[in-house]
Amino acid sequence: MKKRGELEMLEGCIWDKIVLFALPLACTGIIQQLFNAADVAVVGKLAGSAAQAAVGSNGPVIGLVVNLFVGLSLGTNVIISQLLGSGDHDGVRRTVHTSILVSILGGIILAILGQFVSGPIVRLLDVPADVEEMAELYLRIYMMGMPVILLYNFESAIFRSQGDTRTPLIVLTVSGVVNIALNLLFVIKLHRTVDGVAYATVISNILSSGILLVLLCRSKTELRVDLKKLSIHLPTLRRVLRVGIPAGIQGMVFSLANICVQSAVNSLGTVVMAASSAAGYLETFTYSILNSFGQACTTFVGQNYGAGNMDRCRRALRVTFLTGYGTLITVGGIVLIFASRLLWVFNNDPQVIASGLIRVRYMFLGHIFSLMVEVLSGYLRGFGMSLAPALVALICICGIRFFWVYAVFPSHHTFGALMLVYPVSLSVTAAIIACTVIVMSRKPVPPAVGDNSPSK
Known about the structure:
By secondary structure, this protein is mainly alpha-helical. It has helices at 15-46, 49-56, 59-86, 89-124, 129-144, 146-161, 166-189, 194-217, 234-266, 270-306, 310-337, 339-346, 350-382, 387-408, 415-419, 421-441.
């Protein structure tokens, strides 16, 4: 019997469950992005455009690092979902403990590495001299929090695998409020700038990951964490990595391409940098919706694949598309209507707002294709097929955006011409990944993990 917050994915109507899974997850993603957006808004209002540009210029770099481990956490989500569907409870426990330890160790390694590479990375981004020192300081402090940031993502993946997206949302809401309060404390009362908001973000992430860890330690299900039993089970780790590494690479591909675009944005000056930063956070909010429906498809397909119900897997794909586009049109329309006011929250400079509107409009056009990429990638990952969508993203996203920045943008050196790269690259990627799904759907699906997996 399912407990409160969990969803029965193997039986009953799919429509309401997709929405009940995706919307809390979308809200979680939005609140998570609000951590860094609150930094941008506070420094933009109280410390000036230079500090805002310094924080915002780190967005693609932070996204690249985090997306790698978010992808690995998707591996945890998929494997646990399949094991739950097949009834392999011992396998679930091994995967939970392996994932928790991997996230902590990986975060520690990244935190140490970040102290050595933050300076070179900022200089590689061609950040203007007047914001370079602040940008490096923010990145160094943010990287110190990688162990708890990655731990939170893996913990959330464990909750999602059983259909519970509400618990991570509630926990992150609490820590989000704390983050904003600390931002104001550090900047207004303690007169700090980028360092203050960076420390506030790290402290808030400590709180959110700590609460989820306590809940997992107190769980009465097979998802319970026993700190004394934390260990890395190599066969389980290989299964997680088989799905997670390609998913992480796909996320990193987007971030690498965005770093390339960010470098081009930096060449247009501080005003455009601040505008792109503010509009970029609106984009991450709406992207959280697209991503949530992709993860909903992954989890539903994973559990039903583990249970041997292929017809329900295909129905989950159709329902996810319909509900996803309905939500995107509704939310995207609201963002377009109130775009000027939303940008004002980050910066009240009329020039910044005018330039930000350019990115917002191209953003929505790109999201139409991005939803298709997310859902189809999620569908394939539910079966454990993570390499194909990663390769498509690598070739199309990176290839087109690098070509655009270095071949098209120099001769059309405007912000609008640069932003056109998003809908162009995403439309091509969506078309190719759709063809990939059609081709792979005609091939036999390999058996799911777990001792009780059905034979195909």
